[in-house]
Amino acid sequence: MNREFLTDLLTTPSVSGYEETIQKKALAYGREFTDTQLTDPSGNAVSVINPKAPHKILLCGHIDEIGFVVTHIDDSGRLHLTGAGGVQPRLYVGSPVQVWHEGNLVHGVIATSSDLVKKDKVEASDLLVDLGANSKEEAEKIVSVGDPVCADVPVRELMNDCFTCRALDDRTGAFVVLEAARDAAEKGASIGIYAATTVGEETTGRGAYHAAARLKPDCAIAVDVTWASDAPGTNPGDTGEVKLGGGPVLCLGSAVNKQMNALLKQTAEELEMKVQWEIATGRTGTDGDTVNKADEGVPMALVSIPLRYMHSSVEVGSWKDIEDCIRLLSAFLVKLSEEMDRGFDFCPIKP
Question: Which residue range forms the structural domain that includes residue 313?
Fold first, then answer.
């Protein structure tokens, strides 16, 4: 597992709608082990193994992150913002941020005040970025309306093989997709593997739809993060008990294909790997929902990475969980190759 590459992804800004820079890195990494690569108008980057195989699986890990976009620069030189994705504006008050203008980093801080701190509900429109500028004209020399803004939080190692950074959601999933494809190719998987780092999941879902509708895979797996129930204020009774370091999380839900889930479970048992389970009776809130309804409908399963403090700038994950997700997905791709050759049936009932 290439921790250095994941660290590089985590420190590369990719606010939803502004993913081009990080996608170039995903393509460069995938180029080392894939047969061909694809892009599309939405901005997806797809690394392909066995492109001539009769059957194909789409792996989706979204590479965009939540953040903000500059909407206005006022006369004092402060930046006004709107949210991109499910940001929680209160968490950014008084915090350092990065503004990216034409590929250049501009440092700023979210202004704080006693009135803002006391406010019952903080909106994105309440946030102002202080660049240190004294006027609108001065600020406009280094930033402009439309620039993306993200939290300024580096990768930090924690105890027990845990680590923290912003936007583990879902660059860890994008990383797993690429690493699992690499490992499966080395192990001889024969199915066509389309490892897609998708765009726009946090805002529009467009990336997953473009990928599934264009590639028309036999099936798909979305790799995303899920709420760890061992974080303060969470309740295992809501969707299931999920612990950091407890292993990959499989989903029991109406959108998830039962046959694929059974094969994932069997694969984990053969690896003697513990998995965790979550329940999603409706939408899963991942690329899997979009893929599931693309074209004529694509059978889908969801593999998730436990995460504490999702949609904040201090998300916490486990290196072990990420490594186990890679191992599980890689072995599954090899097993699915064999099953597809034998006529694997995704239908849970027979006529």
Answer: 3-65+166-341
